[in-house]
Structure formats: C-alpha cells, structure tokens
Amino acid sequence: MTAPRGPFRFGDRVQLTGPKGKMHTITLRERGELHTHHGVLRHEQLVGQPDGSVVENSSGHEYLALRPLLRDFVMSMPRGAAIVYPKDAAAIVAQADIFPGAVVVEAGVGSGALSLSLLRAVGASGRLISFERRMEFAEVAMANVETFFGERPAHWSVVEGDLAEALPGAVEPGGVDRVVLDMLAPWEVLEPVADALAPGGVVICYVATATQLSRVAEFLRGLGCFTEPEASETMVRGWHVDGLAVRPDHRMVAHTGFLIMARRLAPGVVPPEVKRRASKKSYTDEDLEIWTPGAVGDRDITDKNLRKRVREAQRAAEGARLAAGAVSGEGEQGA
Fold this sequence. Notes:
The chain is an alpha/beta fold.
C-alpha cells in the first residue's frame, strides 16, 4: 500500500485546480476528456507528466495537476453514507493511539472515509475488521478503499451484520486493541465491545449530538469496566494570509461530531470513584425518543441514489486496478 509516485498513468486519480481555484477530481481514462465552460482538457495530456505539473486546455486555461492527498480523496469520493471528516479521523487515530500492528474493530464502515485512515495507521502488520449492517454501504466503502490504494488491502476484513451479534464470532475475547464506533446508538454494543477489548484497550465513539454523548458516557460508567470517559470535539479554522492581510477565513469547519473515549480495565478491577455533581442517570421512554434517527438528524439515502454511488465507486476502483496493473507490468519488463 505504497503511495503512487512517478508520471501520471491511465487509471490514476488526479486533482485539477483550474481558473479561480475551482477543483476537479478525475480518473484518467483513454480518450477521456474534462469538459468545463473554460474549454476541454484531454486526459492523455496528463499521461506521462510528473506529479505537480501544469497543463493547458483547449482555450489556453491552465490547470495544476496533483495526485490527491488522503483528505482530498475523502472529500471528493462517492458517498453512500455520511463520512467522518479528515479532522475527526485524525483525532481518532491520535486519541485512540492506533499504532502499526494493532487489531482494530470499526463499526459502521459507512463510505470508507475512516477506514482509509485506520488502514494506514495499523499498517500491513495490523488488522482492521469493519462491520456494516447494509451491504450497499459496504460496497461503496470497498470500492473507495480499492480506488485509493489501488488494491484491496489484505489486512482488511468487512463483515456484514450487526456488531453486537457478529463480533464474538469474529475475534477472540480480549483479542482487540482498539474499537471505533461510528453509529447511531453505540451504547447498544458496549458490552460485547468490553468483552472483545484487551485490558488497557481503547473504545472511542463518534456521535453527532450532545444527547448521544451523554448517553454513551453514562453507559460507559454504568458498565464499571472502563476508565472515566473523556469527551471532546475538533474544530478547524483556516486563515487568509496574503502579505500583511492576515485574518481568519470567513468560513470554518466547526462542529461535525463529538468524540468520547475510555480504556478497558483489567477483569475484576473496580474503577476509583470519581467525585462529581449529581446528574440525571435514569431515562424515560420520552427521553429515549431523543435518540431516534430523525431526531438526531440521521438522513436516509434513496435506493436509487445509493446504487448510483456504488456504480461511481466501482468505476473508480476499476481505474485504480488498471493503473496498478500498468505499474506491475512496467516492473516485470524492467526486471
């Protein structure tokens, strides 16, 4: 899973920055063309050019061509479900201390955005097991991952089904180093997660609302086998820097989700009592209504739209396989 280098080839994913800074992400194909109101750019013009080149379209407009970074790829790839933004994926990798060789469990896989960061973090010596209830989402994720890496990583397993039911059969008790939960109701699977985690292991949850955050924290405390949970959110504000004109950007990527993490205690250990103000720990049926999909803003994608995303992702993966095959052929000829 090495990053591609060298001249552009058919099948490569390329990010083009044109007039006024507008970006286009394309997959280079034979006889392919990028059509905009500024003119036409033929894909073959890029083939053989080094990364970071500038090419002109039919109207003389210049485009800067670069292979997309992971963050660029994530923001432009086909989506079946909402993604974990790069800023949150980076925080998850850092806060959960996901290391090369780690055994990591992820649920759900969504469109594969977080899976890409986790696969890079664990490396070929590690293992990532991703659980997804809907196979259509998993297909988009698998195609996106294959597009980015040029192959299906051998150390990645995708399991269709509910984590609570499928996890015990997929891993040995105490055999998991880290668990990352990106799902509507992570508290529903915390008990099997606790069984799967090794002592000292980390569970980290990505949730959208403060009510979900509160619910996860109380469940972690109630289980009695985790450390005191820690919650945070990550906000990124860009800056405009042009000579002496230095100011914050007018827009910023603010709240996208909360992170809450805790570590698994050794079996039989009672966590020290944490002194804090009294809080409401009981929930009524009315309280539970707060966490329904509609209430927390969980949006459904239509079957037609999802099928379209699957096709887009699989076409991109086909191009990546073509590029990977071309590199392999060049290597054999050189040998």
